[in-house]
Every structure is written in C-alpha cells, then in structure tokens.
Amino acid sequence: SKKLVIAIDGYSGVGKGTLAKALADKLSLPYLDTGLLYRAVGKKMLDAGLSVDSDGVVQIAEELTEKDWLRDDLRTPKIDKVASQVAAQPRVRAALLDMQRHFATQQGVVMDGRDIGTVIFPNADVKLFVTASAKVRAERRWLQYTTNPNDPAKAEQIKQIELELMQRDEADASRAVAPLRPAEDAHIIDTDHLNASEVLTQVLEIIQR
Ligand code: C5P
Fold first, then answer.
1. Which residue minimizes the CA distance to atom 4 of ligand 1?
2. Where does the chain bind ATP (predicted)?
3. Low-confidence ranges of the chain (pLDDT < 70)
C-alpha cells in the first residue's frame, strides 16, 4: 500500500513536534523534525565563528549528517535565533532540500517545519498548519521549562518568551525564501483550546477522511 506523506507546518512553539511524533508513532511512519536541520547548521556556524551569509555556512548545510542534528543541545534561545537567521539564506535552504525529500522515499514520512507543505512536499497526502496564539504558546513553553510553577517572575518570563516567539514568527513569515505560511490546501488546526491528545484525535479524523 502507498505510504503516507504528512506535512506539518506552523508557528514556533505550537506543538508541531509533539503532534508529529504522536502521528508517526500511531501510523508507523518515519519522522523528521526539519527545524533540527536549521538548528544544527546554526550551531555549527556559531562554533566555527562564521557569518550567516558565508560560503562556509552553505558547506556546513551541504555536509550535514544525522549526528549533527540528533543532539540535545540545539534547543536554546540562542540557537532559536541563529536557526531562524540561517533559515533565511536561500543557499542554505537549497542545500538542505534534497536531503529532506529523500527522507520520504518508500516508507512515507511525517515531517514538520515551516515550508513542508509549500516547498518540500507540495504533493503531500495530508497538509496540516498548526496555530495557537502567541500567549498560549508562551505559557505552554514556560510550563515546560520552569522548575518553580509559583515563580514570582512567571508573568515577566512568559512575556519575554512570547516576545521571542513573535519575533521568530515574524522573521520566518516575512523572509523572501520559503516564508512561513499555510499551503492553500492545508487543514488549519487551531490548538488554543485543545490539549495534545485532542489535537491528535482531530488530526487522525482528518487523515481518515
Ligand atoms: O521548528 P524549530 O523551532 O526547531 O525551527 C527553528 C527555525 O528553523 C525556525 O524558526 C525557522 O526559521 C527554521 N525552519 C525553517 N524551515 C523549516 C523548519 C525550520 O525555516 N522547515
């Protein structure tokens, strides 16, 4: 039987990864978090002291392998920012394109990112665009990382996270190459009032249609 290609795009910190992992698990499909590719390129750029538009960064993207992105130090505010900067470079995106497409051959795939339904797999079987207000996303992210749920600085910290998420959304949506936007045929999933399992249920219904 034909294996599904499922494209998941959406804003930063919206729970795309959680949804993608759960779907991949449920449907026994491979999973690729494409944000990790841009994060890994950004990290290597920082480590090498390169500038964002240099040839060296393009070469890093061309030579990227799994060991570069399967590491646990790529989710920091600093890497959030450089990932978004390298992601605006057309040559970096071009260097990562084939690798992402090849990931889907034969076995199908669940892939999440910003341009999966628009650029990587315009013919995906199912396209999802996941949204939530910046405030809700910031609150969820804060709850994930806080060590003290009663922290007196809570409101201030959430505000700061919200600001960073909005800046990254704005950068991702306004860049010239592969800007963040829903594909015309994407199903919009608003998760403001849904928890992870409710989102999964809704999406499984869409896929079964
Ligand atoms: O999804 P994640 O937050 O890990 O992505 C980090 C950054 O990588 C995003 O802010 C975006 O700039 C970039 N990205 C992208 N295209 C993708 C996935 C991520 O431009 N398909």
1. 35
2. 10-18
3. 1
124 in helix, strand or coil? coil
Q: Which domains does the chain have, with CATH numbers?
A: 5-199 (3.40.50.300)
**Which tens digits make up the pLDDT trace of 85-131?**
999 999 999 999 999 999 998 899 999 999 999 999 999 999 999 99
Q: What distance in Å separates the CA atoms of residue 84 and residue 89, rounded to the nearest whole number?
A: 9
Query: Around 138, how many Cα atoms within 13 Å sit in the side-chain half-sphere?
Result: 19
Predicted-assembly ipTM surpassing the 0.95 threshold: yes
113 lines ligand 1 (CB under 6 A): yes
Q: Is the CB of 162 under 6 A from ligand 1?
A: no
β-bridge mates for residue 110, sequence order = 6, 31
